[in-house]
Design a protein that fits this description.
mainly alpha, rod-shaped
Length: 150
């Protein structure tokens, strides 16, 4: 068995298993307790606990990375939504501001027109008052003239 050659390279665990099998076989054949003890020690991997701790840490890091990625994706999605909402609302603000400015201009124009019309009404009342006074005066003169003619 010691002269066994394989075409494929052995992994570390395969080599360990073959060595343990050879030592156990030799211990049985020779009846040596020392070879059985060496086989037992070789069979137990002294780094198994360290390997398990490293694997657990790797699993934990991968889980944390996945959680971080999920949180990041959520935050990116929410930021995108917030940006779209903000842009939409900014557009609405601009439209409403333009509408307010137009209404303010229309209001100022209507106020100016109202002022002009008020001035025209005041002028017409003055003219109407003057015309009424002239008619009264002419009526009084006419009435006087009619009396004198009788």
């Amino acid at each position: 068995q010691l002269g066994y050659k394989s075409k494929e390279p052995l992994t570390r665990s395969d080599a360990r298993e073959k060595a343990v099998a050879m030592l156990q076989s030799a211990a049985k054949q020779t009846g040596s307790k020392y070879l059985a003890l060496v086989a037992t020690h070789l069979e137990s991997d002294p780094f198994a606990k360290v390997k398990k701790m490293i694997q657990d840490m790797l699993d934990k890091l991968l889980t944390e990375a996945s959680t971080e990625a999920d949180k990041r994706a959520y935050c990116d999605a929410e930021l995108g939504k917030s940006k779209l909402t903000r842009e939409k609302q900014q557009s609405e603000v601009e439209q409403l501001t333009a509408a307010i400015e137009k209404k303010s201009a229309d209001s100022a124009q209507a106020a100016a027109k109202l002022q002009d019309l008020s001035s025209a009404v005041t002028e017409l009342r003055k003219e109407q008052k003057t015309a009424t006074e002239m008619r009264r005066s002419e009526k009084a003169r006419n009435t006087q003239t009619i009396k004198e003619a009788k």
